[in-house]
Each structure stands twice: as structure tokens, then as C-alpha cells.
Amino acid sequence: MLIASNRGPVSFAVGDDGSLVARRGAGGLVSGLSSVKDQADVLWVCAALSDADRAAARAAPDGHIDAELTPGKTVVRILDIPAATFHRAYNSVANSTLWFVHHMLFDTPNQPGFGLAFRREWESFRTYNAAFAEALAEGAGTGADRGPVSVGQVRAMIQDYHLPLVPRMLAEQRPDVRIAHFSHTPWAPPDYYRLLPDEVGREVLDGILGADHAGFLCQRWADAFLSCCAEFLDASVDEAAGTVRYKGKLTSVAVHPLGVDADELRQRAVAPDVQGQVSALTAITAGQRLIVRVDRTELSKNNVRGLAAYRELLITHPEWRGQVTHLAFAYPSRHDLPEYREYTARVQRMAGEIEDEFGTDAWNPLILQVNDDYPRSLAAYRLADVLLVNPIRDGMNLVAKEGPILSERACALVLSTEAGAAAELGGDALLVNPFDVTQTAEALHRALTMPEAERARRAAALAAAGAAFPPSAWLQAQLDALAG
């Protein structure tokens, strides 16, 4: 099996003694690999994201690093893409253009503007995708010698919006390889997708349609992709069957929801480091009801409106003053981009305003943390009475699934209609329009006052739904689609 993703299953850091220290990555793909039913040797191709990654790639024989991820042989190849090329591809195109389009984030009176600079950035994006395609083609081997990958039908799993051009590039080099592309983001509807330059929009669609199978997290995103194929390409689209025929190739399109390995998560959540954080949080919030959010300070996550809704709750329902605390964990994200640095500053300013307006010597209304601390996040889940997940737009959102699984207080979930998770959890969550601060504030009040029996029923259903599609099932479904 071949896997391609921007981030790999291992990354490297420089230890105190100057040596390189390997760190295992997280995420559904890593978790799913160890338990898929048809074990195979794996070659995972990723990009170097740090100087330590680059040093490890240069030191490894042929850039290949052994990793213990599956019972079979697992090899990681870290691509040492030139820093300038990587920056233009990753920051300027993937994160500042494609991410903004699919999450519908542009301030359209001012952005985007696609001129000569963007054309140069797009060339770097092509180069970046081509490096992955060439590494996958080489890793598949030829004849009886398939290099890092076992003899037999070779399957390539290409992950996410960073690599939409790879399927077509790989298919042209290796038509014998079965290819799947999976989008972890939403997909923009045609009216917003057309913000992209015409040739770029078509090239992205063409690239994904080089795959035999294209996967999405919910039906809404799959339908949007099919609609874009019908509108912008001379393609034969069968929306009912979920297929696109283009340039003589048939691509199946399907939904593969991603959930949580509940047993693994629960085991991690009772580890000593998490227990210590539970004790610390309990000590500083004793006697309070807890509204919890765990997010990155990411434009699409809607942190600022979430804080505004909490402030409005305290204004319109003053009975909660002194009775509730908001744990807002908003971890740094993409600080290479100025928009993200300013957004983090806005989150901090609003948190400070809430503390100044409502805080007393006896009560702290808000605890904001902007440093990443996974054990603390798990501890907050365990203590949550209410979980707030209000993204502007989100491919899935695993926080909405993890929280109910771990909550020891049968937490209520306030969930944006624009999260992919709403398709699975909407029946038992309190759904809100993420732009409607007043509606979100009222949903928080309803969550806090929900009868205990109703909370317990909803929380149990949310936990079951969150665990219904663990990473192993998510990955296996994509492999099965390639076998068809």
C-alpha cells in the first residue's frame, strides 16, 4: 500500500544532546493502519516540515526510514522539498487559497486576487505535487521487484487538499496502480469554487479524477464535488450512482465518515498525565458548570463568535454569573500566516474583555489557554457539562465526537450546522447557525438547563455515533472501494 500526505506518521525534533528524536504522529490514518483486515507492506510518502525532518531524510538511506505502524513492513519516505517551493505550495496555495475556498473564508471585496505572484505559486504547487507522484511511482516498483511495497495489486491512498494533483500525475506514470484520493476538508459549492482561476479550478478537479475513487467525509461535500465536476468539466456525472467519467476514466465518489476509536481514547484519557490535569482543572473550577471548547485558533473554527456567544449568555442570563466557567482551549495554528496571528490576538483580546467585564474576586468566568496540551484537552472533555463546537465550516470535526465519549457528566453538545459531523450527530446535538451569536447563546443556556434524563439520553447517543466509524473502518471502506 502507498500513502501520501503532507504530514507523515513520524516527525523529528532535535533532542537536548543535539540528536534527532523521532515522534510518532497522530490521526485517523495512523490509527487505522494497524487494524485493517488486509495487512500489507506500506510506503508512506510525506514532506519534511522542519529542519530536523530534512536532516533525518538526508541521513536515511535513500531517504527511507523504517517505522513500526503495521504488522507488515512500514517505510516512511520524507521528501526534502526546497524550502521556497514548499512555502509557496503549502502556505500560499494550500493554506491561503484552497483552504479558504473550501471553507468559504475569503473577504471577497478584498480577497482573493490572482495575479503574476499566484501563477508562480501555482507552479510551485505543481512541483510539490509532482514530487509526491514521482515518489509514489518509484515506491510501487516494477515487475517482481516492487521496492518497499509487496508484490501484488498496488493501491495508493492520497490524502487531502494539499495533494489534489497527485492522482492524475501518478495515474499517467503508473496506470497499474489503483488510486484513491480522500478530502478531509469540505468541498466548495460551484458558486464559490468559481472564485479560483478557471484553469486552476479545472486542474484541481482533473487531478482528483485521475483517481479510481474519491472519498469525502459527508454527503454534502461529495455532492458539491460532483456538482463542480458537472459545471466546470466536460465530464459525465451520475449523481445518483456517485460516479464521474472523464478522459476515459471512471471515478467512483463516496462518503466515508471518520470517527473515534473509543477504547483507545478512553484508555488514553485515564493516563496519569490526564488524571493530573483533571485534578488541576477541578481545583480551579470547583462547584462550577463547565462549558468546554477545544480548537485551534483557526479562522474556520469561529472562536471569536463562540466567545461572543458566551458573553451574551452572561448578559441575557445573569443567573449564570458565578455558576459557570468557560474553558476555552484555542491552540496556535498556522502562525506563518499574518491572518492567523491577528486572529489569535483577537481571541485573546475578547477573552480579556469578558474577564474584565464579568470577573470577580470569587469567580473567573473564562479560562483561555493558547498553548497546545493534549492531556489537558482530554481532562476538559471528562469534566464538560457542555461542549461548544461552532465552526463556520468544517469537513468533520472530531472534537464533537471525542467530547461525548469522554464526558463523565453526560455533556450536551452545541454544534454548528456547518460541521460535517452534524450529518451524524444532528439528531442529538443542539444545532446552531455559526453566524448567529444570539442563537448560540440561547443554545448554551438550553444545554445548561437540559433535564438530566434528556442529557443522559442524548450523550449516550452522541457517544455511540462518535464511535460508529473508527479509523480502521474508515480506512478499510476506502480500500474496499478500490477493490471494486
What are the salient characteristics of this protein?
484 residues, Rossmann fold, 2 domains, six-stranded parallel β-sheet
The CATH architecture assignment of the largest domain turns out to be: 3-Layer(aba) Sandwich
Q: Mind telling me the CATH class of the largest domain?
A: Alpha Beta
The CATH topology of the largest domain corresponds to: Rossmann fold
Strand order of the largest sheet: 5-6-4-1-7-8-9-12-11-10
User: Fraction of residues in helices?
Assistant: 40-55%
Mean pLDDT over all positions: 91
Q: What is the radius of gyration computed over CA atoms, rounded to a whole number of angstroms?
A: 23 Å
- Domains counted in the coordinates: how many? 2
Structure explained in plain terms:
There is one protein chain. With 484 residues, the protein is an alpha/beta fold. The chain has 2 domains: 2-258 and 472-483, 3-Layer(aba) Sandwich (Rossmann fold), CATH 3.40.50; 262-466, Rossmann fold (3-Layer(aba) Sandwich). Helix content is 44%, strand content 18%. It contains 18 helices and 18 strands. It has helices at 28-33, 51-59, 83-102, 116-140, 166-173, 190-193, 198-208, 219-232, 262-268, 272-284, 303-316, 338-358, 374-383, 399-406, 422-425, 437-449, 452-466, 471-483; strands spanning 2-4, 10-14, 20-24, 42-47, 64-66, 74-79, 155-159, 178-182, 213-216, 236-238, 243-246, 249-255, 289-296, 324-331, 366-369, 386-389, 412-416, 430-432. It has a 10-stranded mixed beta sheet, sandwiched between helices. A 6-stranded parallel beta sheet has the order 15-14-13-16-17-18, with helices on both faces. A two-stranded antiparallel ribbon has the order 2-3. Helix 3 packs across helix 4, helix 4 (116-140) crosses helix 5 (166-173) and helix 14 (399-406) packs across helix 17. It is globular, with a radius of gyration of 23 Å. 49% of the residues are buried. The mean pLDDT is 91.
